[in-house]
Amino acid sequence: MITFNNLSVGFDNHNVLNTISGSAKQGQLVALLGENGAGKSTLLHTLAGMHSFTGSVLFNTKPLASHAKKRLATQRAVMMQANHVGFDFTVFELIAMGRYPYVESLKMQSEKVHKYAAIMDLSHYLTRRVSALSGGEQQRVHMARTLAQLNAFTQSAEPKLMLLDEPTSALDMRHQHALLSCIKTFVEQGNSAIIAIHDLNLASLYATDAILLHNKKVLQSGPINTVLTEQNLQQMYAMKLHVNPHPYNDAPMVFSQRQEFL
Amino acid sequence: MKYLFILFALMAQPALAQERVISAGGTLTEIIYALGKQNTLVAVDQSSMYPQQATQLPQVGYYRDLAAEGVLSMRPTTLLALEGAGRSQALTQIEATGVNVIHYKKPTSVNELLALIKRLGDDLNAKQKAQSLITHITKSLPEKAKAQTHSALFLLSANERGLVAAGQETVPNLLFSYAGITNIAATHSGFKAISSEVLAVNQPDFLVAPAHVVQSIGGKQAFCKQAPLRLLKAAQSCNLLVMDSLLSLGMSPRIATAINELNEYKTQL
Amino acid sequence: MNTLTLSRFTPITLSQTHKWMLLASVCIFALALLSIGYGPAGWDWRLAIAWLAPEYFNQFDALQINVVMQIRLPRFVLAVLVGLILAQTGAATQALCRNPLADPSIIGISAGAAMVAVAFIALSAQFNFNAQLYLPYASFLGALGVTSLVYFIAKQQGQINITTLILVGVAINALAFAIIGLLSFFADDSALRLINYWTMGSLGGASWSTIIQAAPLLLISLIGLWRLKEPMNLLLIGESQAQYLGVDTNKLKLYVIILVALGVGAVVALTGLIGFVGLVVPHIARLMVGPHLRNMLPLCMLIGVVVLLLSDWLARIVIMPAELPIGIITALLGAPLFIYLIVKNKRGWS
User: Fold this and answer.
1) Omega of the bond prior to B51 within 30 degrees of 0, cis?
2) Which residues lie closer than 8 Å to A147 by C-beta, 6 or more apart?
3) N or C: at which end does chain B have fewer Cβ atoms within 10 angstroms?
């Protein structure tokens, strides 16, 4: 549960985001859309607590800065696009790192790791080195770690937040869907997620809401069905795009057409 | 605790133990042999290279960095330490086990050398021999030259990295002054680098180099032909005196020989 | 699957880590007997226990027992401490810089210690005071001083930029050695020799008093870094990820730098420069049990002790009764072992 108001973020005397507002409530999977350089990553990292900002960011109704670091880590997790780890940890070890914010016995930690590995179908990979896995498998490991960090899929009163920066960009279609459906299941348990994503159709299939970033401001935000219009898309991407309903799912589909070079 | 062990050590020592001496310092070792007391020597340090027999003895490291256990393993009764011997920690440990450690100042002049010989004579129970050695040196020592007739340069090394010459407060400098030779490199102290440009303007009459250096280059001619020396007339005609390394670099009882060598060389130039 | 790293972290059976640690401990025990029993003053393993009750060991005289108690035992203790610290600070620096090729000298610590120590020695000749007595403190202050300087330069907007840290460290290294060269030029012969010996490393200065004096610094570094091993481990997957997992990375980096400087500064002050251990021992441990500090760090520290004990013993007996500088031995021992492990591991990869 996160809301931001009049948020401005700048580096070296120029603004990247200009007084924007938005939120991700419980049960919402928010797709963060915008062209390259629109500020999606910056917004995500600011909400995660990395950058300084003017305006307000409230996480679970309290200002972001007022949360204790370790406690915050059990409630919000960040998964990034490039997850290259220079050291050859095993799958078990990497997932276990997600448990750092928790005080627990090694036995308990091991049980948790096995649980989240099983959820992500990694039970047979636990002793393998992460570097020896394929791209899709590695993302599953990072997702398992993120889930472990948030103690996901357990009875919990407090809502959790996932912030993801292009988690599907390097994956094949099957893995893209697998990852997003996992996040959707997570969100449906009373949590929230904000995902910066390029693939509009993928966003449309799984996200409940969307925030469109354009020119350092929010163009429009709200339920994804209402926000994904031809007019909005034309403004954002400066090209003609068509929106048609999906033949099988209740979701808008975006079609582009052949362009002339020059 | 320490004192308990000294007591223990002293009690365990058989009465009238045979003298076992370790010498730390090349100069000291040479004098010991000159005094005829080498039969008490059980080990020497790395810098004790003269006479030849000394190198056959076990070595306990360089005198500035003695191995405490190494020294003690030779079970010495006495350790003769030249000024600068160390490390102080090791010497303390050695002394704590009951070894008699005697420190000697490094001689920087002929008089100090003679004083050292006298002291060693006293400490090693060789007063008479010491006296005769002193007399011998004083007699064979040529008169200190009154006028400076020649100029020379003592080179410790001459290679691509430049020239290292003996300046003031070195043994070669002392030898030069005795033999009436001006030291071109007297502008600095110790063994330091000197620029070949400076030498080109201020040329020495001849060069002197220690034997071990000349040998490693490949002989007299090879030494003279080295690049940094090419502007020197002395190198071009190869006016090079090769001296025994220990003789020329350390204060030794053979100092008279060293000075005479220089005198002979300069006269025949 | 690589058999060397099988079953990492599955706590059901005695893990690979524990097996390696057991092996290392056995080696340490054997080396203790070896290094305390065998040396120029006495060549018998029983010397290693005779000192406890000399009355029962009549074959050894008072001098030998004294040598064991005043020379060999302090040396043993020092070797253990130095081995632990050099290995741990090496692993910590690699975690800090997120680079397996880093070691404490890369951030200018050893250079800082060396520079101040050399200045001290050169000045002692000019102003005639006993350099050897105060050298350890001068060296330690130098390490801390230079490291602080490097740290402050590398701090940007409140964050410590690791790349800048390394670059500034490299520059300081160059500067320090230039200054050392300059000082050497003005030093007299005795100072020059002292400088030379100090840069080659030796455990010869080990005595109970020096160890007790340095013990607080050594222990702070040892315990401090050990307690930080879990958050340090998170630095390995990236600083931002570590932050998102709840680690205060700025504080962590600061603590690590200080603790590494403390440990390395104190060790360098006691033994001079001993290279190689901080760089390669963590690698060796990593090849055996992987990079996770929970496994790697304890093993790494034990291997450090093994390397130091063996090197010091060899340094003492190879040219008996003289001694070799220990830095030479650590390199000669460590490099082939390292190569062997790389080759063995390579064949294990599918």
Assistant:
1) yes
2) A98, A116, A119, A120, A153, A186
3) N
In Å, how far is B244's CA from the nearest CA of chain C? 20
Total domain count, chain C: 1
Please report, as a single letter, which amino acid is at residue C132. Q
Among all residues of chain C, which has the CA nearest to that of A77? Answer: C244
Can you point out the beta strands (E) in C154-270? 155-156, 159-160
| CATH number of the domain residue C119 falls in | 1.10.3470.10
- Closest chain A residue by Cα to residue C2: A128
ipTM computed for the complex? 0.89
Cα of C1 to nearest chain A Cα, Å: 8
Residue C341 falls inside a structural domain:
yes
* Strand A76-79 to A252-256 pairing: unpaired
Phi, then psi, of A156 in degrees rounded to 5: -145, 140
Q: What's the mean pLDDT in C281-293?
A: 91
Between chains, do B191 and C189 touch, taking CB under 8 Å as contact? yes
**Residue C20: inside a domain:** no
Q: Which residue has the higher pLDDT, C331 or B225?
A: B225
List of chain C residues whose C-beta atoms are within 8 Å of the C-beta of residue B190: 188-189
For the stretch B31-84, pLDDT in tens is 999 998 889 999 999 888 888 899 999 999 888 888 888 999 999 999 999 988
Q: Tell whether C95 is covered by a domain.
A: yes
- Across the interface, whether the CB atoms of C61 and B12 are under 8 A apart is answered yes
For range A56-79, the mean pLDDT:
92
Specify the DSSP class assigned to residue C68. I
Q: Which residue, among C173, C177, C203, has the nearest Cα to C118 in the 3D structure?
A: C177
A86 at interface of C, judged by CB pairs closer than 8 A: yes
| B neighbour chains, 3+ CB pairs within 8 Å | C
C128 touches chain B (CB under 8 A): no
Q: How many CB atoms lie within 10 A of CB A215?
A: 13
C71 touches chain B (CB under 8 A): yes
- The answer to whether C199 and C114 are in contact (CB under 8 A) is yes
CB contact under 8 A, B73 and C197: no
Question: Which residues form the domain of C239?
Answer: 66-349
By C-alpha distance, the chain C residue nearest A162 is: C244
Contact of C49 with C76, CB cutoff 8 Å: no
Give the residue from C244, C249, C297 with the most A CB atoms within 10 Å of its CB, the best one to mutate. C244
Residue B106 contacts residue B248 (beta carbons within 8 Å) = no
Q: Is B191 on the interface with C (CB under 8 A)?
A: yes
For chain C, say whether B216 makes contact (Cβ under 8 Å): no
Per residue in A107-125, pLDDT tens?
999 999 999 999 999 999 9
What's the CA dihedral at C116, C117, C120, C125 to 10 degrees? -140
CA distance A44 to A4: 11
Instruction: List the beta strands (DSSP E) in chain B.
Output: 21-24, 41-44, 78-82, 100-104, 150-159, 162-166, 181-183, 191-194, 206-210, 240-243
For chain C, give the percent of residues with pLDDT over 90: 30
| C-chain residues near A149 (CB < 8 A) | 245
Top pLDDT among C336 and A98 is at: A98
Q: Which residues, in sequence order, are bridge partners of residue A214?
A: A217
Contact B69 C69 (CB under 8 A): no
- Residue C130 has φ and ψ, to the nearest 5°, of -75, 105
Angle ∠(C8,C9,C12) on CA atoms, nearest 5: 105
In this complex, do A90 and C9 lie within 8 Å of one another by their Cβ atoms? yes
Q: Which pairing describes strands B181-183 and B191-194: parallel, antiparallel, or unpaired?
A: unpaired
Residue B13 — pLDDT band, cuts 50, 70, 90? very low
The answer for C86, left when phi > 0, alpha when psi is -120 to 50, beta otherwise, is: alpha
Nearest residue in A to C7, CA atom:
A127
In a domain? residue C98? yes
CA distance C25 to B185: 59
